[in-house]
Amino acid sequence: MSEPVGASVVRLVEIRDTALSIDEVMAVLDDPTDGGVTVFVGRVRDHDGGRGVQGLDYSAHPTALERLRGVCEQVAADHPVHGVAAVHRVGHLEIGDIAVIVATAASHRGQAFDASRTLIDTLKAEVPIWKHQAFVDGTEEWVGAP
């Protein structure tokens, strides 16, 4: 799922079933006016709640891309940033795979740090993307599903 992004502050918003690229995110935020770019990369870890994880699948509601765009636009409106990017993966992911990348660019590092924290925290709270975890003991669970 992808949506074209113009020359606005929101530079990249996508939900895709292919590998995510930090280089791609950095490239769309490349601007000589910015003194700080803060990037958060969320990866699949090998444990959760004291149990071993063997892999997981992410699913997105049909409105997820629209909701993700709205979160990015709100962060851009609330923080003095020049660039915002958010990309989330869906489908099957293995341990170590990148699940999400969010980044913001601003004149100063503090502005970028604050905006990126708001971006990832709001994305996790408001964008309908759900995680189905498979544990090494054969059990499974859905995280974030309604």
From TrEMBL:
PANTHER family: MOLYBDOPTERIN SYNTHASE RELATED. One of its GO terms (molecular function) is molybdopterin synthase activity. It holds the Pfam family MoaE. It comes from the Bacteria. This is Molybdopterin synthase catalytic subunit 1. CDD domains: MoaE. It catalyses: 2 [molybdopterin-synthase sulfur-carrier protein]-C-terminal-Gly-aminoethanethioate + cyclic pyranopterin phosphate + H2O = molybdopterin + 2 [molybdopterin-synthase sulfur-carrier protein]-C-terminal Gly-Gly + 2 H(+). Keywords: Molybdenum cofactor biosynthesis, Transferase. It is an enzyme of class 2 (transferase). Pathway: Cofactor biosynthesis; molybdopterin biosynthesis. It comes from Nocardioides psychrotolerans. Heterotetramer of 2 MoaD subunits and 2 MoaE subunits. Also stable as homodimer. The enzyme changes between these two forms during catalysis. Its EC number is 2.8.1.12. Converts molybdopterin precursor Z into molybdopterin. This requires the incorporation of two sulfur atoms into precursor Z to generate a dithiolene group. The sulfur is provided by MoaD. Belongs to the MoaE family. GO terms for biological process: Mo-molybdopterin cofactor biosynthetic process.
